[in-house]
Design a protein that fits this description.
The chain is mainly α. It is built from eight helices and no strands.
């Protein structure tokens, strides 16, 4: 009886930690949005940066970098419902700090207070070098844990580890051999792949939800979010091509981040009582009880 109580308590504490990590991720997104809005209000309604990433060169820099690094850590730590989902979340989480540490090229614009942009190259040199050390250490730890695990790696896990090693090695090579090119393309490449992974994760959840509930698409919250994630950026891109919308990137980024937060809230509510979606059962929806 005592053993059962301890095991039950341990599982409950682990589930609480899982819940709080999920809640923290949403709070971090809200914090990032609040920081951008505060900076915007401080400059007047006529001043908007061309992208959220451009707020790196404003007093919002600290929150922008800190929130993305913390969000990346949460995405890596949290376990996905399937191997594919877990792998995609890991990739997105690893790329979030790259998006934060490698800013878009500096453009003279308005801001509430001047921020020194001359140290950009030095900041990137230091931060990315440290990040590569952390990535190498993480890969080594993952390999050791995989070898020592009672359950051998699946083909997807093994190939995913090898692909990550190749990606980190390629990033390190470009970083050291052609720093100028790295500064020019690093942010955009990381951001596109990161958002792409997130969209695929939402699509996978839409398919899994339909499979276990047999819901129509209009009653499948994940499907609605997935469609909006694809359609809205395409519509905005079309408007940009038609009329030359200067802030199209800003609103595409804001839309995708908002929809990701909505997805995360929906998934957190569904998995509140289970942590991971059962493979052959309907979604668990116990509601937010402690």
């Amino acid at each position: 009886m005592r053993v059962e109580t301890v095991v039950g308590t341990s599982r409950h504490d682990s589930l609480k930690t899982y819940r709080y990590l999920r809640i923290a991720l949403v709070v971090l997104v809200v914090g990032l949005a609040a920081s951008v809005v505060v900076e915007w209000l401080g400059t007047g309604p006529e001043c908007l940066q061309v992208s959220i990433s451009a707020y790196y060169y404003t007093p919002a820099q600290g929150m922008f970098v800190g929130a993305l690094v913390a969000i990346g850590a949460c995405l890596v730590i949290l376990q996905g419902n399937t191997e594919w989902e877990d792998s995609l979340l890991n990739v997105a989480g690893m790329l979030a700090p790259v998006v934060a540490f490698v800013p878009t090229p500096y453009q003279e614009n308005c801001y509430s207070a001047p921020v020194n942009a001359d140290t950009q190259a030095a900041n990137v040199a230091n931060n990315i070098a440290a990040l590569l050390v952390v990535a190498a250490l993480g890969l080594a730890v993952a390999a050791v844990l995989g070898v020592r695990s009672r359950r051998p790696w699946t083909r997807l896990q093994r190939n995913g580890w090898l692909a990550t090693v190749a990606a980190v090695s390629g990033t390190a090579a470009l970083f050291h051999l052609d720093r100028s090119l790295f500064l020019d393309v690093g942010h955009y490449a990381a951001a596109v792949v990161m958002f792409g992974c997130i969209i695929v994760v939402v699509v996978l959840n839409a398919l899994a939800y339909e499979r276990v509930t047999h819901s129509r698409m209009d009653r499948n919250p994940y499907a609605v979010v997935a469609v909006l994630m694809v359609v809205l950026p395409l519509v905005m891109g079309g408007v940009h091509l038609a009329v030359g919308w200067e802030h199209v990137v800003l609103w595409v980024e804001a839309t995708l981040i908002l929809l990701f937060a909505v997805f995360w809230v929906v998934q957190t509510r569904e998995l509140w009582g289970a942590g991971i979606r059962p493979a052959h059962a309907g979604p668990v929806d116990e509601g937010p009880t402690d």
